[in-house]
Amino acid sequence: MLEIKNLHVKLEEEDKVILRGVDLKIGAGEVHAIMGPNGSGKSTTSYVLAGRDGYEVTDGTVLLDGEDLLAMEPEERAAAGVFLAFQYPVEIPGVGNMTFLRTALNAQRKARGEPEMSAGDFLKLVREKAKTLKIDADMLKRPVNVGFSGGEKKRNEILQMAILEPKLCILDETDSGLDVDAMKLVSEGVNALRDAGRSFLVITHYQRLLDHIKPDVVHIMAHGRIIKTGGPELALEVENNGYADLLAEVAG
Amino acid sequence: MIGQAKPDGYTPAPNLPQSGAWLRGLREAALVRFQAMGLPQRRDEYWRYTDPTRLTVAQAATVSGAGAGAGGVVSAAFDAAQALQLVFTDGVFDGAASSPDLALDGVEIDHLAEACAHDLHWARDIYGQLETNGQTPVARPLAAWNTAMAAQGVLIRARAAVLRPIQIVYQGTDMQADLILHHCIRLEEGAQLTLLETGCSGARSNHVLEVDLGDRAQFHHLRLQGEDAVAARVTHIFAQLGCDSHMRSFTLSADGALIRNEAVIEMLGADASAHIAGAALGKGRVHHDDTIFVTHGAPNCESRQVFKKVLRDGAVGVFQGKILVRPVAQKTDGYQISQALLLDDDAQFLAKPELEIYADDVKCSHGSTTGALDETALFYLRSRGVGLVQAQALLVLAFLAEVLEEIEDRDLAALVQTQLEMWLDRQQTL
Fold first, then answer.
1. CATH number at residue A210
2. How many domains does the structure of chain A reveal?
3. ipTM value of the model?
4. What gap in Å lies between CA B412 and CA B400, rounded to an integer?
């Protein structure tokens, strides 16, 4: 599904190197988690995959099902199946949530050469998905994320994911700012989307989220590289011992 | 020929249009006012941001046929509103193109071209009178010239709530025409009227709209102007409001080489409210100027000025807005906001907000912002699959949403929104 090879990235504006050779391979249907201390390059990885401005790829490749992801515009990546659930979902005053969802879905369908979804079918789809995420009609009517609580914003991200049905879901610290109940709701939403044809990259600081969204593979990232890869037990190790031991191990 | 201010029109002694007794003196007085003021100059305080030359040169620049009237805001925009239509073709009332029956319950409609021959007309208390009141403290010579020279326009007097909107449509193909139109609206006590104005014609036009609102009258005004052509337009609205009367005026200006919209609103009765709003869309060599002067002349009145401009490729937007609160106007609630969205580095927005307050128990606020599209929001939309151009259009519409809120009739607001969307669609293909 996703293959990142030797990815080097620096900030465009300043001469600051963030990623120094990331290698990562995610197979179809797999759930991978990336953990790591602040500033290790986790969020940068997610932004570079989604195509955000401000980053310069100085070396390496990213393939999505064999296609060169880095050559695509952000909207082309979305149509190809990439979805980034933002750590800080953006508020867009003046754009209704429903308009936003419908515009996004139909833009992707159009880009893939599929017919637009009718208003009736769309409404049915949104209602069904919103219900399981406990998103009420009012949240759908309001402008995108405006006046939403932290939990509501994250649920709204998962709603978008459920409607757009991407191939590769990248969750950037989706657990941040969530209470226990909200985390459960969000995780259930994610788990409902788990599928043999859909892969996940879950970026988190904490083992907590991984109790709910069980990963197949856990990577530890530090200083712009993946320094260790293992099974779910690796997350527990971090939870108990912190990153110090791992960092020392790699340095040694 | 009656009705056209010919290019050599700005002479000290022009031939005034033939007029009956009620009008002759008003025209002569207007000419005297105009002569005393002279043409506007760049050095005048309220013309500092807008070069009046194109409006004041003897010869209006001929508009090239190609592209004139193409696209832009169209007169068909309000078809769904099923308004009674008064059509002016190349600045002259066109009965054949207008609604066949101009009778409407509660309202009388006259044409200046006909009414001017009479010896008496109710409009004598309005025509040029509100314009005269609006000449102080700031001179508006082009409006005085209009009063002196206009031979075409409509005179509308409403006595009750008029259920069907009245629409004035400007159309035409004469690309050298130099047009002057003058409308007078009188709403008697408790009357209600919705007036729509759409389209543009001619190489140059000068419109004056005088509005006299009786107590508890309600006047809704919606105007779509501009086109993808190179024409110069100046419009003036002069309004006076009686007790507890309400005025709502919204203007959409799309492209057009030079558009100067002036509104001079005076609240003379207590508890009145006036909301003046505008959305301007400009791309390329476009100059849009909104110059608004709101006077609170009675207690407990409310006013709002809401203006938003979307500018790109060298387009220039100007907003000059003033709130004057007279000593008698206690409990005034005045609000003013002007905002510009600059879609590239070449566009420019110039704003001059002014408050002049002589009462001590008032609430007045104003603000002005200039900015670019929110890059983060743009990326968020694109990351969901929305293409760059469509994402920009969504954010532009979002920016304009607040000013569309000023249109109280949601059906008409939706029609204006459609015009905005069409303009944005056209931008994608240009």
1. 3.40.50.300
2. 1
3. 0.95
4. 15
